[in-house]
Protein 1
Amino acid sequence: MTAQRDGGFPEGFLWGAATSSYQIEGAVDTDGRGPSIWDTFAATPGRVAHGDTGAVAADHYHRYPEDIELLSRLGARMYRFSVAWPRIQPTGRGPVDQRGLDFYRRLVDTLLEHDIVPNLTLYHWDLPQALQDAGGWPERETALRFAEYAEIMYRALHDRVPWWSTINEPWCVALLGYAAGIHAPGIRDPRQAVRTIHHVLLGHGLALGAMRAIDPAPRQGIVLNLAPVRAADEVPDEALARAVRLSDGYRNRVWLEPLMRRHYPVDMEELVERYGGFPIEPGDLTAIGGPLDWMGINYYNDTILESEPAAVATVHPGVDGVREQAAEGEWTDMRWPITPDGLRELLVRLRARYPDLPPILITENGAAYDDPPSADGGIDDDRRIAYLRRHLQAVQAAIAEGADVRGYLVWSLLDNFEWAEGYGQRFGIVHVDYGTLTRTPRRSAHWFRDVITRNGLPEPEGNAA
Ligand code: FCB
């Protein structure tokens, strides 16, 4: 009883899991799919660990019924997946390939048959290569093409998909893709990164407008990876304080302010001008700031910065002299620190800063751990359970402090292609054997099912505490 009372979540809380197309589907040449920037990037030597590619991945394209069965056994109420744009328009423009659309229609229908609410992401990074060849996100044209593709998908599925999001983690698209170059398309050019910031937001805004004009009923949103950014020193010197402020700008405010307030952060103007500035045209900020029905937040860890006078920025253009503090104490296999209170802090601060913030779903949260199967064939990933428990406690604390969080989707349902890390990092609550493609739920999957059934956290047991 106590666990139930202390550990309960609001009634109707939307529990589930998330994945993305390139990370699980495989079948990259099937049914007319065109190449994406991730096919190209992965095929370029030295870009992805071990030369891994998404060519087979978890073969979800063929095994989706089994994966939905897994979701159903978890008791999931919602499933977040993304659509591979190059399956719909192989070159990012022009005629639709019906076979691609049919795949997602089958996927959605199978979810609905299992009483699982589909939550569709339009863009989780697999840009059609042909659009990158024409300049990619630094070009305004890509935002226009994205809105057109969004409209195609929406017309096809708005009658059966009640939750939509446009772009997954625009920070990664712009800054990992075009500034740091560690994600596709692997470009290191701050000017292109700055243009991309504006064009992904514009793509979002135009898509939203197009979709709402067709049918305003389904919920429309965007998924951001936000995180508190702070200084390692309690009393940072002026340079570190500035770096923290501007990093927070790139990480959080450059997205939130135009989305919620229709302007870019004023204190970033000078910096961004150094790289050519945002290519804003009349009406853009109105489109970008159109009403959101919900916001997805992906959270893994917060960012602690320390001075490193010699450091030249790679990810955040112009924010030199600073580096991320190496994780102390606990971290996951990604060497990402474990900072659950950052999630509580983020949710509470967001609400204070934006009282008109729409309802939130935690659209990703999870940890990479590669625990080996034990003698009985089970996989005891107690560290993942501990990670999830602590972050769910943080969500509860934030809700108690007034945050309007409506659901939580674990990253990820399955082990998958972890971008530049390839298959070396395993995030699944379900293990995938990449030789046989056999799926084996880890102990965390059983634990999560229990959480869903109770709508709350079970008492900690043994070392899973
Ligand atoms: C997020 C991505 C997701 C996954 C997790 C670990 O940034 O949205 O695809 O790779 O990180």
Protein 2
Amino acid sequence: MTSSSSSPVHKIEDYSPNLWSTSKVHLRFDLDPHLTVVRADYEVKLNGESIGPLFLNGENLEFLSLRLNGTIADPSEYEISELGLVVFHPPGANFHLTIENRICPSKNTSLEGLYKSGSMLCTQNEPEGFRKIVYSIDRPDNMMRFFVTISGDPNLFPVMLSNGNFITERNLPDGKKEVDWEDPFPKPTYLFALVAGELVETNDEFITKSAKKVTLKIFVEKGNENKVNFAFDSLKKAMKWDEDTFGLEYDLDLFMIVAVEDFNMGAMENKGLNLFNAKLVLADKKSATDETFESIMAVIGHEYFHNWTGNRVTLRNWFNLTLKEGLTVFRDQWFTEDMTDPDVKRIKDILFLKEHQFPEDQGPMSHPIVPKSYTEMNNFYTVTVYEKGAEVIRLVSEILGRENFKKGLIDYLTRYDGQGVTFEEFISSMERAFGKPIPLLSNWYHRSGTPKIQVKDHFDETTKEWVFTISDRDSDALPLIFVNSYAAFGSDGKILSEGKRIQEGKVDEIRLCGYGPSYAKPILSLFRGLSSPVSLESTMPIEEIQILAENEPDGVSRFFNFQNLIFSWMDDLIQNGKSERFSIIIDTLRSCFKKDWDKTYFSFFLSFPSLSQISEQLQCYDYLKLETYRKDAIKTISAQFSKEFQYLYEENRKTIPIQTKEEIGKRRLKNTSLYYLLHDPTSKFEGLAIAQQREAKHMSEEISALRYLIEIESKAKENVVTLFYDHWKHDALVLDSWFAAQVGFGENKSKILETLELHPKFNLKNPNKVRSLYFSYARNPLSFHDKTGIGYQIIAERIKRLNGINPQVAAGLAKLFSAASKQKGDLPNIAKRELEEIQNLPNLSKDLREVTEKIVNSL
Ligand code: TRP
Ligand code: ZN
């Protein structure tokens, strides 16, 4: 483990090109789970004017030897530290450097570098894992051609993979096998991958638009080979979509995916050899929910799209991470919009942004999409860099229009092919396609926080116009460019006018004619579809919101206006202890039951906002009170529309276990109806849920019934939990959801957490298990923010255990303490005490140091 004292802060203004680069490397691996020998043979060349010391990154490596131009270097010629190796006087502007070191994959629980997962060895190098494999210039602006030889025991490693093209394999006299791989495209170290193990290979193919055949392979551990069909279909759809939308074709003859059980995040775009968290590849109708299927398609798309946005054109430095991630998330969102339902997809993305990114941007971890500094880059794979980054790209596409945006992207990919660039190059391509500068756009990359937009109106007597003043409230912050898609409505719900305004800077004025004999004020729907990532401070009277919730033809805006109705009622209730506004919600819902909406859309409309959505929206952290109000509302809706929900349930009861829009919609609507029915005061519908779980043909049916029965504390709870376990104890991925369901909702889940972590299927070293148990608990506000502080104590204790195992995951868990400063009573103090104890750990990782420091400062 790297000790915290030696880890520097990296500042964006300190970036400078490296003095040296390595343009070519031959890597040799002698695989052994306990002691792998790695040798790198680099072609080194000088970038600068005059020769100076050469620094190679290296962490936790056992140095063996160093050769300069083939000659063993004398120990006086170099120095090894915790962070790497310096060659004091390199032998010329061009030379060969050969270095050899040893590593121990089986002891590498950080899951970064070369590590063991199940029976396989695999790598994770983004952002800075390669330095845990071999001494190297481990920075994204250093691009190399990779030639790779892997040698190992064919019984342990019948399959040995790396990036690019397979060249040859041979059997060695000592019984080992050796394979050669070569990647024709230069790439930075973070895109290097190696996988070796006893893997089952599954195959498919794709013919590109220029009639090239691409072989597709998915490698899985034995037993999972029939769970890959959906992933193959998703991959082929993604390949086709990138051709159809941007004209982008795949550039190698082989594309491989490996499913890995122990994985820190979702998936990784290594050139030609994507590595995936098993839960984002493996699926069949019995074990995967509709949400899982959709995530698989999105993430397969995302990683595939990185082949152009990320790999062919890569990053100059890690500050620009959003250049590949924001852009690629935008591309995968667009892909899913095209493959499913654009309104529903947009609703999901906005909900996610509001629930996760907005709070991150208000809390101690807030940062611009291009962070100004970092200690541990792993801490910056955030919803801000990814999701807000994608919103900024969406904004660009709104300014340019989608056709010009496509031109801009092609310009970017052609002009900067093979280079590591920054967001400025991206903007310049977009400006070329636009034909003029895009003012203030770059400020989106530097300003943190969600812009708060205020709307004021007055009537101009002389022109008989209503003047709406739209202003960015933070007058000190950098000025921005906004796209404001708007529509004006009359009180009859008819559209009077609509359009798209580009706001440059702090203020915009929309002038609209008053309508009718009295020049009535139009009702404005602003930032429709969240045309800019802002938070709108609405002071609209509830009757006007109702008009929008019932009449907005834009499905996304209609949905969010309905949510606003609910928030407006809840806010009134919190302020005054009572509210007359609920009947408006009921009226609006009543009108919805008569509409002929798409089933998935309708189910979203009917779903009552979650506790965390409500608390974030209203900035109210009295969770117990909010939950009481929320449950009362759900019960009232359940009673009011009992007939309708029963009807909907019956109508959608029988579904076919396939992934079509119709069947997915039916399952969702049926589950939403069931959820309301279960809140009927008589408990008479519990039998329905129990039967649904028993008879389920699709995981979406089975797990929802289980979750709801747990949430309502049904008498059958213990039984259904056991039943589910007995059914699925052989499937690790399904068990993740089983663990999560038991701690993810409701109060007092600490006992059950302590029981479950002793369960034989729980494993502290497996991030999926840690996420399903600890993260689910810590994202359950009723338990985590329990006023006694027990939630904080429990999670802090688990963070300490994880610190020595997996710093990246430990720091991710610690980030959830960001919400502590907003809590009442003693909670902020308790959080502070717990975090300070973590800071006193003798081997505190830099990951945790950076995160805890920021949060403690907010407490
Ligand atoms: N680049 C990956 C993506 O597609 C994310 C990533 C960064 C990652 N670090 C990782 C994935 C570590 C797995 C493990 O977004
Ligand atoms: Zn990505």
